[in-house]
Amino acid sequence: MTWLIFALVFWALAFFANVRIANSGHSTALWARLFVPVLFGVTILVVWEGVVRGLGVPSVILPPPSAIWAQITQSVPTLWMDFVQTFIKGALTGYLMGCGAAFAVAVLIDRSPFLQRGLLPVGNFIAALPIIGTAPILVMWFGFDWHSKAAVVVVMVFFPMLVNTVQGLAASDTMQRDLMKTYSASYWQTLLKLRLPAAMPFVFNGLKISTTLALIGAIVAEFFGSPIKGMGFRISTEVGRLGLDMVWAEIAVAAVAGSAFYGLVAAIEKGVTFWHPSQRS
Amino acid sequence: MRSIVPVLTVVAGIIAIWYGAAIVMNQQWTRDQAERAGVELQLSDIVVDTLSQERPKLPVPHQVAAELWKTTVEKKITSKRSLIYHGWITLSATLLGFAIGTGAGILLAVGIVHNRAMDMSVMPWAIASQTIPILAIAPMIIVVLNSVGVQGLIPKAIISAYLSFFPVVVGMVKGLRSPDAMQLDLLKTYGANKGQSFWKLRLPSSMPYLFTSLKVGIAASLVGAIVGELPTGAIRGLGARMLSGSYYGQTIQIWSALIAAAVLAALLVGIVGLIQRITLKRMGMTR
Question: Which residues lie in coiled coils (chain B) (predicted)?
Fold first, then answer.
């Protein structure tokens, strides 16, 4: 009962503090913009902990955050093994291969307007399909180890990346291309010095979308069969054994890995497309 | 319309590659069979055999089409082997989840736009959550809800709702903020209150953004419903067809379920797109 009251009091105080800060003159300051969401996140954790303990929710339904944290610190080797298997071997390899292939294909078909007009609608169409459904097929073809996961990731990231790159290569305007022509620049010079740099915001948009897709693809593909390691494998087996704290621990790792991966790509984008209006503000 | 010929060319190219890949990938089995029987194979024999195997590594388009025809048109809709039946199971979960997710997303977006504290607390998390592989918690939702006695449609719908929720929140917040300062000032000179400027300015101008995120959301909902059918060994739905197909090596069944899911996704996105075109046209927003 004390837990429940503590949670409610904490929530009320945090709510009050956030409203005060948001409506005060400091609301545009950097510390306020960081502090308010962090306090919101902490409040959710505290209320979660308080409600679970206060109402005695069994841990097979919802373990408290403290138990999840204890599980994370306890099973670092397992989590690391799963992380390497799913993220480094599965998701990252597939991401690099898929995005690289899509980029290369986009540059190749860029020379042919005919192929572009044909591939763009088809690519857009395929990008909206539930491609994750190819996972069982690819697991059959490439076996249970990380190769099949990488293959799923390749298929998942290929079309979003292709569509974005093709759009990006068309992004430089006629005036700029005419200027290159007056310099009598060759096709490759125009490509390297004008059109690829101009395409970068689109390319990075595709790369950012693909980070999430890659992790999802690698995890879900493991539901269809995997060796006895990997995040998706651990989630599905621990769910079966009702070891929910381990499941939450894996999800926490996946969330951190996903955000960090996205953040890394976003940071690279910031360095590469420093000239773009959206990065200058 | 001038892009029809290129699109058809590309599609024809894909189908040609598909047939070629099927011949290459299935020939191992054909060779093994022939070796066991002690028969010498001609190239034409290999081609014919690879295109008509019972459990090929890669079924060819006409096999999948035949299976689709068999399981949609020739079977009764109520039959457990009818793809329409399984598709409906998945579709109902998708639509329910999509409705919940979009409704909640729009409500949260309205709250975020009108309340600064909510904006500052929730918005960073809503954006960050898009980088998280949310789909990973699908098995847990199913099992946990199962252990408290909720089964069937609802757990899948919750996963669908969860997946369509965040794109709608982010898109809708962008949309509700899209009127520029000049327009907002105009309404202020009219003495419009918050409610009036919401209904007459913010909501109408958010429509293009809303529909864009609805398209993303409904595709995500369908993926959520399909993945939601995987972990518990469900026996109904398109995801269950894929899973049982992968257990028993019925590749043709997996492919037909996959094509059915693709058609379903295309239909759903197409319907949302159609509503978008009609709505925006009547609102005078299309060029």
Answer: none
Best CA proximity match to A171, nearest among A279, A267, A273? A273
Which residues 96-115 on chain A approach chain B with CB closer than 8 angstroms?
A: 114-115
The pLDDT of residue B99 is: 94
Query: Which is more confidently placed, A267 or B3?
Result: A267
Chain A touched by B39 (CB under 8 Å) = no
Residue of B nearest to A128 (CA): B219
How far CA B100 is from CA of B103, B131, B165, in Å, comes to 5, 22, 8
CA of B142, closest CA in chain A: separation in Å? 9
Distance of residue B44 Cα from the nearest chain A Cα, in angstroms: 25
Domain residues of chain A, as ranges? 2-57, 72-280
Q: Which residue of B has its CA nearest to A32?
A: B120
- Tell me the C-alpha to C-alpha distance, in Å, between residue A195 and each of A176, A192, B166: 9, 6, 33
Query: In this model, does residue A271 exceed pLDDT 60?
Result: yes
> Looking at residue A281, what is its pLDDT?
56
Give CATH superfamily name and number for A72-280: MetI-like (1.10.3720.10)
CB A21 within 8 A of CB A36: yes
Q: Which two tokens stand for residue B73?
A: 């048109």
Residue bearing tokens 């005695």: A56
Contact B135, A219 (CB under 8 A): yes
Is any Cβ of chain A less than 8 angstroms from the Cβ of B95? no
What one-character-per-residue DSSP string does A209-264 give? HHHHHHHHHHHHHHTT---S-SHHHHHHHHHHTT-HHHHHHHHHHHHHHHHHHHHH
One-letter amino acid at B277 equals: R
d(CA A127, CA A22): 39
3-state secondary structure of B190: coil
Query: Does A117 contact B at CB distance below 8 Å?
Result: yes
Percent of chain A topping pLDDT 70: 99
